[in-house]
UniProtKB/TrEMBL annotation:
This is AMP-binding protein. Belongs to the ATP-dependent AMP-binding enzyme family. Keywords: Ligase. Transmembrane segments: none annotated. Residues 30-390 form the AMP-dependent synthetase/ligase domain.
Length: 536
């Protein structure tokens, strides 16, 4: 059975994303603040932002970037992020946001795979950016720095954003951009494997803004806090682009710190926040919450991982807010489901209903046929927001989007007869840690580079707070068998921690005699999880 939204379909935009977001800017809005930094107060009005976007677009055009070329953004949340993102789009190029926590090696993988030619970053991230661009195969020819001019101290020229924009000829004709051109290339592990470039068009991203309108109902007087990384599709669509499109104020915080997060809400009178379940847990339990005036808060949206109904209720009761839940994937731009703000009847532990223009089915994991209402099955979705495919990976694309155009999410759900969906399990092997995706295959490949490890597997197991954590099961080589287990486990965790972003760190190590595998060589993760729980 195909499930559709209780809301009418929306008209699919026929303009590029940057025009959809900024194209109808009222002159009266030009002097209104658009985005500002919570810690410094620095930011842009809508007029300043659109002029900077035009300057970035012109400067990139002068550098020869155009249709199909890629520029990467390696930065935490900052007021300059939307200026760079939409400036890249205005040049006809593709923006590839990179996680601000990446190590130089991880960043180099994305730069190499995306063939990025320009890299935007911040002064604080410049050392890692410089280290990444010298890796073999990386084609970055210039680093553009948000902040002060840096000169040419790295292996490639470095220019400040102000220099770039100030020297651009904005009178030149704007690049021709079609709605079906690629706009963004975020990286996602999808349902399995290493990070892959997700090809999202202008139309994908623009229509998803309309599709997700029922969640939150953002208006021109709204104040949003960008604590979810703007490198994540959740942050790009639900916060940055949705806020700017509705002429709301977007306040950025560079990284999550509970005290700074609460201070920003209180100081800037934030009424909409988009968060992940670990932040919901802090809002429900931390005594620090009582030290701040959060009375401006109205809407709290949680996404990126399933939210427990009791936790949703605890936050709603403590803060006097409406708690909503959204669901999606990078591959769907991202939103496919959500709890609309005008549906208080929907269980807050659910992912709500299908958004407009999306068709959803729940299918048997073995046969692919539709299951009955209330029975578990894999969620698959089809709509105008589904990605074009993975960059340079037709095999992974075919495994994720079927011949009928359905995106296979890898999530096991149930759906009631009235169309309310609940996530109950995951088919995919991804570990969700604090809202981030951690690919076991990436950590396993890294572990096998350790001279003392013969074989390894990684699974996600719940910790004391219920948060899923990467745990490594390790078979030791003979050279490491004489080491005390505690010392070697610490060495293994340090080995990984030095080579990956903090959220990917292995949090526990267990030594085993062998890694269970199927006849085809596939790691039997379920057996490892069961054995680990049985030994506790």
């Amino acid at each position: 059975m195909i499930f559709r939204s209780p809301y009418p379909d929306v008209d699919i935009p026929d303009v590029p994303l940057h025009e959809f977001v900024f194209g109808q800017l009222d002159p009266a809005d030009a002097d209104r603040p658009a985005v500002l930094a919570a810690d410094t107060g620095r930011g842009y009005t809508f007029g300043e932002l659109t002029r900077t976007v035009s300057g970035v677009a012109a400067a990139l055009g002068e550098r020869g970037l155009g249709r199909g070329d890629v520029a990467a953004i390696f930065a935490p949340n900052t007021p300059d992020y939307p200026a760079a993102f939409h400036g890249v789009l205005g040049a006809g190029a593709v923006a590839s946001p990179a996680n601000a926590l990446y190590t130089p090696g991880e960043l180099a993988h994305q730069l190499r795979d995306s063939a990025a030619r320009i890299l935007f970053t911040t002064p604080e991230h410049l050392d890692r950016a410089r280290a990444a661009v010298v890796h073999d195969g990386v084609q970055v020819s210039e680093i553009v720095v948000f902040g002060e001019a840096t000169g040419r101290r790295g292996a490639v020229p470095e220019t400040s954003l102000d220099e770039m924009v100030g020297g651009a000829d904005t009178s030149r004709a704007a690049a021709a951009v079609a709605p079906d051109d690629l706009a963004a290339l975020p990286y996602s592990s999808g349902t399995t494997g290493l990070p892959k470039g997700v090809q999202l068009t202008h139309r994908n991203l623009a229509v998803n803004l309309l599709q997700s309108d029922p969640i939150g109902r953002i208006g021109p007087c709204a104040r949003l806090l960008a604590v979810v990384p703007l490198s994540h599709s959740y942050g790009i669509t639900a916060i940055m682009n949705q806020g700017l499109r509705h002429r709301a104020l977007v306040v950025t915080v560079p990284r999550f710190d509970l005290a700074a997060f609460l201070q920003a809400i209180a100081e800037h009178r934030i009424d909409h926040i988009h968060v992940v379940p670990p932040i919901m847990l802090a809002l429900a339990r931390s005594p620090l919450v009582d030290s701040y005036d959060l009375s401006s808060l109205d809407i709290v949206v949680s996404a990126a991982a399933p939210l427990d109904r009791d936790l949703a209720g605890a936050v709603a009761d403590r803060l006097g807010v409406t708690v909503l839940q959204g669901y999606g994937m990078t591959e769907s731009s991202p939103c496919t489901h959500g709890i609309p703000v005008d549906r208080p009847d929907i269980d807050r532990g659910s992912i709500g209903v299908v958004m407009p223009n999306v068709e959803a089915r729940v299918v048997d994991l073995m046969t692919g046929t539709d299951v009955a209402a209330g029975e578990p099955g894999e969620l698959i979705c089809r709509g105008p927001n589904i990605m074009r495919g993975y960059r340079n990976d037709p095999e992974a694309t075919a495994a994720t989007v079927d011949a009928d155009g359905y995106l296979h999410t890898g999530d096991v759900v149930t759906v009631s007869e009235d169309g309310v969906f609940h996530v109950v399990d995951r088919v995919k092997e991804l570990i969700k840690y604090k809202g981030y995706q951690v690919a076991p295959a990436e950590l396993e490949a890294l572990l096998l580079r350790h001279e003392g490890i013969a074989d390894a597997a990684v699974v996600g197991l719940p910790g004391p707070d219920g948060e899923e954590r990467p745990k490594a099961f390790v078979v030791r080589r003979e050279c490491a068998e004489q080491l005390p287990p505690e010392k070697f486990a610490e060495d293994v965790m340090t080995f990984v921690a030095c080579r990956v972003a903090p959220y990917k760190k292995v949090r526990a190590v267990e030594f085993v005699d062998l890694i269970p595998r199927s006849a085809a060589g596939k790691i039997l993760r379920k057996a490892l999880r069961a054995a680990s729980r049985g030994s506790e």
